[in-house]
Amino acid sequence: MSAAAATMDAVYVIISGTTAGLATLTSLDDSGVADPDEPPQLLAGGDLVEAVEALELENPRWVWADTATHYGWLLARGVRVDRCHDLRLTRAILRGSALSAGSALAASPRGEWDGPAPSLGSDASASASVDGQQSGPVPFEFDASVATRTTGDPGADAAAEQEALAERTVAELALQLDAIRSATEPNRLRLLVAAESAGALVAAEMSHAGLPWREDLHDQLLTELLGPRVAAGQRPARLDELAGAIRRALDAPRLNPDSPQELLRALQGAGLGVTTTRSWELKGVDHPVVAPLLEYKKLVRLLTANGWSWMESWVTDGRFFPDYVPGGVVSGRWATRGGGALQLPKQVRRAVTADDGWSLVVADAAQLEPRILAGISADTVMAEAGRGTDLYAGIVSSGAVQTRAEAKVAMLGAMYGATSGESGRLLPRLARAFPTALAYVENAARAGERGEAVTSRLGRSAPRPGEQWFELQAAAREGTPDERLQQQARREARDWGRFTRNFVVQASAADWALCWLADLRRRLAALAPADPDVDALDVAALHDGGGALNDDGSALDSGAVRAAPDDDAYAYGPRTATATATPRPESGDALPSAATAEAAAPAPTTASAEATAGADGAADLSPADRETARIAAIEAEIAERERRKAADSPFKAADPVAAMAARLAELQSAGRSVRPITTPTPS
Fold it and tell me: How far apart are CA 252 and CA 265, in angstroms?
């Protein structure tokens, strides 16, 4: 099969299951229509593993309600898949996107596919165990609450439950595919949905593999900073010492520095004109209490968020098992369910140490959001300022501002809507230098102030204000004599405009990051050694900059890892792997080439059309040659579909499970087995 045909191939296989420990496999064509010659198959757990391993070699797109649940269960049993379609994540995108606002899905009432996945109970955050080995946080329990809620009878016939759930799952996929096809710009949504689902695969694999964590080093770091561990409810020695210094400085011997109310009263009683106990306000105060109080607050945060209790809860056998939530923020950025995996403090990052025989590599997309702004606004002047260099230094070179610090303040002010102070002073100069980029975010802000939808580069739309917001704006427009309401309406309109101003940049940056993760996942898999005893690669994302480590665990220069939110990724790979390894042919989840450059987010170093062109020389083709290549690709796709229809399939056999098992054994003997994802084990 050619790379082009593989990219366009979109055969779906749905996995749906209930609490009965059974799952249904349903094969669909690229339009989401079931093949009458391939009826749904009801499989038990062991048979499901064999079936997925066999069918994965045909490179289908797996469809399920929730990737963390379904794929996590497969990962725990040594099965890795290449691509998927996450129904819950996709529905959230399509229901909210302005591009699919006219679809039947957008108009439908909220139902079982809306919102987060059903809870798996009290053990949802605990790691499952397969043959006594640590695995991801997913027991075998597919769509438990969905099935129970629908049937209303936990004792109903398992086969009937499975059939009903499978039918609803097929119907939901068809509804989603129709929403994409009928969208005003379907290609943008197709890429976003593929990237979002690929990101969910990455998150599941990261949660399953875990992050190598030196518990002894973590304990050593905590002891150095806080003193020896003490019983719960007591302060470690360093905190106790600082608490005493705070009390003496404020002449408040009974003060509890952990109580914001008590602390604020003590600060004000000592003559300090503060209104909060926040660190940013305290830093502007000249008083002997400030230094010990700031250190106390910092160490308390460390003890609470990443102290000994955190290590006991989240680290097992030298691995930190986070629980990532793709699409957990409206902009498309990730979140976590506890553990703080996106915000590991610098004090404990040294505990993240590569396993023996592995290396820790940091990828830093420097100044990501300003570069994304240059790309989505098509501001070629700003793109040129950052081409191959520090963007803020490039802004200085353009003459817009005098120092790098001014460039950063001005750019952040443009993206976050700062209108006063240093940002307000510098913004007009930035607007004169880069009018296209500044007009883009300004237009997004004005749209938000009117209550209109704004959308990311690939089609994720911001939520619109609530009904009360619109009522308040309507009252203000009608000329209410209440000046207080007029001021409130203006304030709330400006606040929503600041949100939409930043949303178009941040959400587009999330689009880019998802495409990058999908491409990186493919390339890492291609770099993995063929030896099944050598473990797979994994990636861990960090939010708000990260700390890199040398092989001996010492910290690299922190200046090398400055980054915007969601910029960093830690990758573990064998030291013999190189960036020149040839990747395998890519399918629909990879970063777009010239054929889809128009729908793609920009490369981090530039946003120009030249940078978004593919690396295969497509940018050098004439329009006629490009059209010839496009037609050839379509013809290849048609030929491949016809070949697949005529080919034998395990689903068409009299005994599908046996046929799939036999085919898997044949492929394994030929060295084409699906290599499982496993946790790296120190040698």
Answer: 10
How many other C-beta atoms are found inside a 10 Å radius of the C-beta of residue 296?
A: 22
Structure tokens at 543: 């939010």
Query: For residue 549, what are the β-bridge partners?
Result: 555
431 Cα distance to chain centroid: 32
Strand partners, 133: 130
The model's pLDDT over 481-510, given as tens digits with 9 standing for 90+, comes to 788 889 999 999 999 999 999 999 999 999
How far, CA to CA in Å, does 246 sit from each of 28, 186, 288? 67, 60, 9
pLDDT of 521-548, one tens digit each? 998 888 765 444 444 445 555 554 333 3
Instruction: Say which residue the tokens 């996106």 belong to.
Output: 342
Distance CA 609, CA 595 (A): 12
Q: State which amino acid sits at residue 672.
A: R
Q: Do the beta carbons of residue 193 and residue 180 sit within 8 Å?
A: yes
**For the purposes of burial, counting CB atoms within 10 Å of the CB of 115, is it exposed (0-12), middle (13-18) or buried (19 or more)?**
exposed
Please list, residue by residue across 581-606, b when 16 or more beta carbons sit within 10 angstroms of its beta carbon and e when fewer do. Answer: eeeeebbbbbbbbbbbbebbbbbbbb
57 phi, psi to nearest 5 deg: -70, -15
Residues 324 and 500 sit within 8 Å (Cβ to Cβ):
no
Q: Is 481 helix (H, G, I), strand (E, B) or coil?
A: coil
Least Cα distance to 162 among 25, 359, 350, 341 occurs for 25
What pTM, to 2 d.p., does this model score? 0.75
The torsion angle over the Cα atoms of residues 640, 643, 644 and 646, rounded to 10 degrees, is: 160
Tell me which amino acid residue 243 is: A
